[in-house]
Amino acid sequence: MRALVFDVFGTVVDWRSGVARELAGYLSAIGREDLDPFALADAWRRRYQPAMEECRSGRRPFTRLDVLHRENLEGVLADHGITGCAAGDLDALNLAWHRLDPWPDVLLGLHRLKRRFFLAPLSNGNIALLANMAKRARLPWDAVLGAEPVRAYKPQPEAYLRTAELLAMRPDEVCLVAAHNGDLRAARAAGLKTAFVARPTEHGEGQTVDLRAEDPWDWVATDFVDLARQLYA
Amino acid sequence: MRALVFDVFGTVVDWRSGVARELAGYLSAIGREDLDPFALADAWRRRYQPAMEECRSGRRPFTRLDVLHRENLEGVLADHGITGCAAGDLDALNLAWHRLDPWPDVLLGLHRLKRRFFLAPLSNGNIALLANMAKRARLPWDAVLGAEPVRAYKPQPEAYLRTAELLAMRPDEVCLVAAHNGDLRAARAAGLKTAFVARPTEHGEGQTVDLRAEDPWDWVATDFVDLARQLYA
Question: How much is the ipTM here?
Fold first, then answer.
């Protein structure tokens, strides 16, 4: 194994808290503190898979996630009776996804893993999103990969296979690290190694999905520091 | 201006010395110390533009530079009567382009520039090449871009324009830093800002090209530290 590639939203960063924080600021600015920013963050995220599915199915050409997020934001706000927003304000709010904080173990874990492995995100986020996030949070990636350079959204097999090809590695030289069993299933089907890291509060306190490894993944770790410990053993 | 993108071979790294060093090791191993490794490095490099031109012209689909380098290596060796080499040896020798050292001002200059700007290579090198080089030399890129993600070789306009698009920036928010006037001309024609940094020994002591800025570029610097000084003024 030579490279570790990482799911990002949920696995590396706490998207829900970060997006809710930015939404709370906007709701306050427009006098809509009656709305729950966490509920709005969840609603925004619920439109994520259906929007990508339009591209996966071929009904729409590959479209970067920033564009899908921006469309989905307008839809979510309209669902809550918020319309006529200034386009510039929504452009700025859409960058909430560029300004997410990593879970507490991430920086230490990545710095340890970087000494032995090539590290890159393999996220459905676009390059600008992932690179801006990395610069702000100081994530020490060796390259910024993901759906955009390979023009395929996970869990399409091409997303995993073409990423290995960009790295000039065989699929089994690459390990996907993810908090989502479905992502790992698709990576394994494409020939990658797999590592599960539980993120039991990604969806808040009442989370019911992805609380544990559902298949015998190659590694199962409590966090990135634990993963580094297992991989150096 | 928000991002600086860099030509790499010649501008960031001293490809000639690095490639000659690796060739010298190989020539020694096969008992051909009679050949000049610098002359072979130059011959290898002379096949670079014609190989890319096959792709630019559409006669050949976009092919990553590692593949072109590998083909060109066999051609150069054959020109010097060296045939029947082990494929694995040539694969390893081809990675000479992944193991190049930066000019002495590069690391300090990039670290200073990174505090204010988004930094990425915009090289004809492929992602694995550029990322392996960066990991070895500790080049602090914010993202690894270049010909491969945009599937166009400089000086095609698409190489510059699609790179700005991947960064989600307007072309005039991006500045190309290069030691080559021709690269800067193409970048300016595409709407990018331009910065010239002289590398008067890229081609050895007798260099006759690109010794000075041939057009009024937006910035003309003696090295990356000088460029950082000018951009912070």
Answer: 0.92
